[in-house]
Amino acid sequence: xxxxxxxxxxxxxxxxxxxxxxxxxxxxxxxxxxxxxxxxxxxxxxxxxxxxxxxxxxxxxxxxxxxxxxxxxxxxxxxxxxxxxxxxxxxxxxxxxxxxxxxxxxxxxxxxxxxx
Length: 116
Description:
Elements: H1 3-23, H2 30-35, H3 37-40, E1 44-57, E2 60-66, E3 71-76, E4 87-100, E5 103-115
Parallel strand pairs: 3-5
Antiparallel strand pairs: 1-2, 1-4, 2-3, 4-5
C-alpha cells in the first residue's frame, strides 16, 4: 500500500470517529441532577430512560422520565409527548421553578432534542 493511501484512510477514520463522538452527547443520570439541581440549572444535559407519565395538548406538554436512578419531568414544546412506556433520550436545559397546566415542578428539563 502506498503511503498516500494509508494517510487518506487514517484521516477518514479519524473524521468518522470525531463525528461519532460529537454526535453522541454524554448522558447524565437523573439522580445526579436531582441531587444538585442548582449545579445543572441553565446547562444542557442529556438523559435517557422510559416515559412513566405524560400529559399535554397541541404539541406541547410534560412527561416524566425514569432511569435506573430516579425520575424527572421533561417539558416539550416541539415534539409533543411520547406515549407511556416509550424509551427515549432527551437533550435540553435544566430549569427550576417551572409551571405547566396548573401544576408546579421543582426541576424540569426543557427539551431541545429527542431520540428514540
